[in-house]
Amino acid sequence: MADLSIRNYRRITTVDLPLGAGVTLVCGRNGQGKSSTAEAARAALTADPLPARGDAEQKARTKKAAKDLVHDGAESGSVTLAGGNGSVQIRWPACEVKASGRPLSASAMAVGLRDTSLVAMDAKERFATLREVLKAEVTWNDLWAWLRQTRDGVAPPAVGEDLARKIWETVEKDGWVNAVERARTRGIDFQNQYKIVTGGKWGSVKGADWRPEAWDARWDNQPLAVFADKVTAARAALDAAIGTAAVVQDRRARLEQAVAAGVAAQEQALHVGAALDQAQKELAAHQKDRDSFVDPEVLHRASCPHCAKEVAVVPERGHGGGTLVYILTVPGPKLSDKDLKAARLKAASLDGAGQRIKDNLAQLLRQQAEAAAAVKAGEEAQAELAQMGPAVEGAAPEVVTAAQAALTQAEAAHAMVKAVQDAHAIHVMALQNLHIQAALGDAGVRAAVLAASIDDFNADLDTLAVTLGLPPVRIDAADASLTVGGRPFRDLSDSEGRVRVRALLQLAIAKRDGSDAVVIDIEAATDRRHILGLIKMCNQAEMPALITCHMDHPDDAPDLASDKAKGAGYVGQSFWVEDGQVAALPVGG
Length: 589
Hints:
- 49% of the residues lie in helices and 15% in strands.
- It is an alpha+beta fold.
- The protein has a domain at 170-418.
- Helix 6 (224-292) packs across helix 8.
């Protein structure tokens, strides 16, 4: 139990109210101080000297204008909330806050500031708020279960526990956004590797079936060792056909070719390295140009919720299956049709140029790898040549030619099978990476955990809705939309429950976020039955509440201290506000 004392705040001159035992109901006619009472209580419960900041009619309220909060004719105003384990006092116009112990407190949503209500938020804000309020935080077990879950009868790509643990360590250390970016970067690496092996772009479907043009269908599903054995056998056959001397002679020629190729490859590597450096610089420069260019098609203009200036909401492009990140920027002047057309052409040109640079970079990487392999082979051949003796004439040319052709064919088959197996391994890792990106993305495990929490929260809303005589109130876990009896909240009129739904959400969130009390200021006219429903809801939830509402006469106000109200199970006390002062209603029937 606590005592709320208000002095010279806006329309209020003197108010002393209990807070903490049931419902404190303050009724009165318009302009007498109901909302001022609620606002001062909000200030005390949130320790915020500007409790209406952000309200639709109070966006400009600042500390500089705090003198307007002091009752006309008074030098200062104050609110004090004392009781329980502490107290808090706020004084105006200094906006001075003093607290001791552990006074009653409540969140901004629990006290009903308009800009914090779920009904005033867009989907993104509502999801973020629910994740925080419902404490829908993902655990290691949630991530591990999501990665292994079968969806629509399709088993997911296998992700080992060791890899999953590393992903979770990244999330805990660097956060979800960085974990997603790291997975996206790995996805690009896999695509580049695939292009080096196959010469083509990777696709989640076609990547599993890639085969070289000369592929023999009989090679499918045969182990690489079979082809390695065929190469060994063909090489032995060639040795037998030409004899030791001929082998040496042929070997010498091949080694000399390898040495020559290695020398040429060294020079090529220098050119490729220079070209690669230039391509990387071009890619960085192009990315900078592209990132600085805002497509007119994706520019969304809005008003800043803090300063009311016009801003633009721009989605940054994601790559490799990553998520979109939205940023705020200052919009430029609106473009004419001619300039808009030019901007579209520029966007298309930038995207085309960027793709050409990336294709060139992948080709250069492949050339660099090939040159490095040739240089290494040349060095090994030079070392072997140094140990060889003079060449000796070998067997008949046609026998050697046939054996050499067989070896060449065996080596080609071995190389193709290895390339197919390498491509398949990269494909499996790329699919695995896409699965990881999906798990970390906006529609992944975080969405699944939040959806489960929202379902649980909807059960709380059902219980409260019954008390208010409302149809089921639902928050859709897919798009965060709010419905009442299946109808969108925005389509409801006040008489159909907008006021009651706001109060229901406010109370449900207060129970979840640990608030000690709620403040419900009913500005729109409503009937006695709806007021009693709100009081009953707060009583059943065992949540202390300050409710202010319009009544034309004290006799119209529900008297919660009456025997009739107590017999009906209502807990609380009723007050009447007039000319800035509050007094308890006489105990009635």
